Amino acid sequence: MTNYSLNELLYKFIDDPEDPHNNFNLAIHYHSIGQTASALSYYLRTAERSDERRMQYQCLLSAANCFKSQGTRNFTVKSLLQNALTTCPERPEAYYLLGNFYLKEANHHEAYLLFSIGEGICKGNQEPLDIDVEYPGFYSLVMGKAEAAYPCGLCDESRKLFFKLKKEYSSLMTEDHRNYLQEKLSSLGAHGSNYKFRTYVSTDHKDLRFNFKGSENIKNNHSQVFQDMFILSILNGKRDGTFIEIGGGFPYHKNNTALLESDFGWKGVSIEFNEICANDYKQHRPNTNVLHANALLINYSRLIKEYFGSETIIDYLQLDIEPSANTYEALLSIPFDEYKFRVITYEHDHYVDVSESYRDKSREYLTKMGYQLVVTNVAEDDESAFEDWWVHPDLVDEYIVDVMKATDDSVKNAGKYMLCGEIIPEKEKFWDITPWPTMEFTTSIPKKGCVVDCAFCPQRILERSYVDEERYLTLDNFKRALDKLPQNVRVTFAGFTEPWLNKDCTDMLLYAHEKGHPIAVFTTGIGMKVEDVYRIKNIPYDLGPNGRFVLHLPDNERRAKHPITKNYIEVIEAFKEVHHEIQGFYTMAMGTVHDEVKHLFPEAVVPAFWSRAGNLVGEAMLKPELLNLQQEYKSIYHGEEPRTCGCDEHLYHNIMLPNGDVSLCCMDYSLKFIIGNLFEQSYEEIAPKPQSCFDMCRFCENGVKPV
Q1: Are 487 and 514 in contact (CB under 8 A)?
Q2: Mean of the pLDDT values across residues 119-128?
Q3: Which helix (H) or strand (E) holds 112?
Q4: pTM score, two decimals?
């Protein structure tokens, strides 16, 4: 319609009041300025005077909308829409408007009938009408049918139609309709209330993906898609863990922490917005701190400090509220810069997320925060992906992560994923072939080498071989590495340099003891304080081969160049005072005991010296004093045949360096045989296979032929 003023339109009407176009243009103008009474009269005049079905149709629909906006003539609205429908039954608008009329009247069966007929008849693109009759598009017929179907008892059909709308039409919708669709999908879910999700029972144990500790005692689980079994798998049946549950729901039904609390002694905090659920939770799970609160308004730093004290690592974080946008907002409020979580289950609800954006957003964010995605697109069926499962790689066993990993784009049916028909056993513990698996710690490698600089210790080769800037092992990094060691692995403080050149060595030793590891020490006492002697004297040092507590004393020949200071003498005096209390204590020297300490320990064992698997040959070129001592150490060469380790510890007496690298053994001063890094890998990954052969073993007195 050409833009005319009201006066111009009236003059045209006065000139020819029977012209349908003059009536139509006046109706449109009055409608546009909100004068619906005038508008509807001209719409009706147009419909009576026009011979064009299309114009009649538009006017009947618009007149109905005018009456609808007045809110007092519902019968007239219905009659006009019915007349419009009979005028152009091939067009969709009347089906939509009349169907919506019946919906508002709660006449769901009539509404369902209208929407169904309209959907069936009006498929394909229709030429748009000349005016807006409040028809959003073909998708609105499908949406109306979906809404009407549910109260008609056609619940499954309703759910399928809403998911069809998300898949095929969401990009065409108005913002209001997209929001409505999101609300409906979130409330309906993938299945009805009668759907029985797959749970774990004791007879499933033979089919568990990973046979974690304590799994044989579980009778049944509670989670919707095996989240509780995943958490326990990743943490190998961890007991007395901690959790934060954002979106607690019911205390047991579809709950991810009920099994952890009841069977494995976990404790934590649950946040639930629904007051009925929160009260039910408090009644049936009194050991959990339940907060009836809006998860988006919580200060999580304050919450964690209140309920977990000084802990900075929480074992499990659940993020599961509705809709996807809220879950993502909650994720952004977690203080990841202050706290770490071993396992996270994140409900992105991708299958009902109309925007289809929050899964990717959450993945990008959690990856940025340092977390590793282990299982993608978890579902209770084969198509409704709603959750991702994450871990912090520094806080879990990498081998178990590899067992549980499933990160392709496919939907993971949780039952099929978790009960995959086989038990994947724990990795073979190669180190168990010896009663004395050992990890020696080199606590520091100064740029100028060890100050004791023993003649038979290849320090010049070590100085040239170790080029990393990380020269001192921090207490935190020691704990980080130690926590990856199986408890039966002996921890020895010796390594390639004097261990107490690191001021934190005593704290490291005590931490290893507290963690239950066997302990052994080989020290010159250089770097110690008198208080260190008293702090470590009561440790039950291991008495196995290459164990005990060995104090290396200075010698008159100065083959070991101890800086003999007043503090050093006081330390040796302290050892003299308490040495009978130290389990496995004995002394050694590289010659006759030095006169400065001989009155304290007059005798010491002088061991046989070997070439350190050939390293002293190269060291002699860098350390001239060795040229005069060649007759005092032995060398051996086994020939070209492969050799492996014949020590009592076999291949499992390894040396960790300050940067986390692990060398094969105490002969490897050239650092040519680095078998892994404990900061980046698990102990299981770096442990060599039994009977593995290394070139170095061909030059070592302990080298033997593999069996």
Answers
A1: no
A2: 82
A3: helix 108-121
A4: 0.55
Sign of the Cα pseudo-torsion (591, 596, 598, 604, in order): negative
pLDDT at residue 425 tops 60: no
Q: Residue 99 and residue 144: Cα distance in Å, rounded?
A: 7
Whole-Å CA distances, 677 to 461, 491, 558, 660, 686: 21, 16, 36, 5, 7
Q: How confident is the model at residue 124 (pLDDT cuts 50, 70, 90)?
A: low
Instruction: Determine the average pLDDT of the residues in 287-315.
Output: 96
Q: How confident is the model at residue 428 (pLDDT cuts 50, 70, 90)?
A: low
The number of angstroms, rounded, from the C-alpha of 440 to the middle of its chain's C-alpha atoms is 32
Residues sharing a CB contact under 8 Å with residue 134, sequence separation 6 or more, in sequence order: 65, 97
Distance of CA 306 to the CA centre of its chain: 24
Give the lowest-confidence range in 165-179, 499-513, 560-574.
165-179
Q: What is the average pLDDT value for the chain, to the nearest integer?
A: 92
DSSP 555: B
Q: CB–CB of 442/678 below 8 Å?
A: no
Which among 66, 69, 68, 98 has a CA at the least distance from the CA of 83? 98
Residue 422 pLDDT exceeds 70: no
Residue 195 confidence (pLDDT): 63
Give the integer Cα–Cα distance in Å for 480 and 487. Answer: 14
Taking a C-beta distance cutoff of 8 angstroms, is the pair 235, 307 a contact?
no
CA–CA dist 262, 268 (Å, integer): 12
Could you give the CA distance from residue 187 to residue 206 in angstroms, rounded to a whole number?
36
Residues in the chain, overall count: 707
Which residue's structure tokens are 């609105």?
A: 140
Calculate the alpha carbon distances from 370 to 344, 363, 364, 397 in Å. 12, 11, 10, 16
Q: Which H helix or E strand runs over 346?
A: strand 340-347
Residue 400 to residue 426: CA distance in whole angstroms: 8
Query: Which stretches of 535-627 are assigned E, i.e. beta strand?
Result: 549-552, 585-588, 609-610
Taking CA atoms, 76 is separated from 32, 37, 594, in Å, by: 21, 14, 117
Euclidean distance between CA atoms 576 and 564, whole angstroms: 16
In the Cβ-directed half-sphere of 589, how many Cα atoms lie within 13 Å?
19
Burial (CB count <10 Å: 0-12, 13-18, 19+), residue 615: buried
Give the model confidence (pLDDT) of 73-114 as tens digits: 899 999 999 999 999 999 999 999 999 999 999 999 999 999
AA letter at 186: S
Which residue type does 233 have?
Answer: S
Check residue 194 and report its DSSP letter: T
* Nearest-angstrom CA–CA distance, 156 and 192: 8
- DSSP sequence for 29-98: HHHHTT-HHHHHHHHHHHHHH---HHHHHHHHHHHHHHHHHHTS-HHHHHHHHHHHHHH-TTSSHHHHHH
- pLDDT tens figures, 685-698: 889 888 899 999 99
| pLDDT tens per residue across span 392-415 | 999 998 888 988 999 999 999 999
Decide: residue 142, CB within 10 A, 0-12 exposed, 13-18 middle, 19+ buried: buried
pLDDT above 80 for 190: no
Cα separation values, 69 from 31, 39, 40, 616, Å: 11, 12, 11, 99
Angstrom CA distances, 583 to 11, 548, 587, stand at 116, 7, 13
Question: What is the side-by-side strand order in the sheet with 585-588?
Answer: 585-588, 549-552, 519-523, 490-493, 438-441, 653-656, 661-663, 674-677
pLDDT at 35: 94
Measured distance CA(458)–CA(620) in Å, rounded:
9
pLDDT over 90 percentage in the chain: 76
Burial 490-513 (b: 16+ CB within 10 A, else e): bbbbbbbbbbbbbebbbebbebbb
Q: In this predicted structure, which of 135-149, 348-362, 403-417, 603-617 has the lowest mean pLDDT?
A: 603-617
Q: What is the CA radius of gyration of the chain?
A: 39
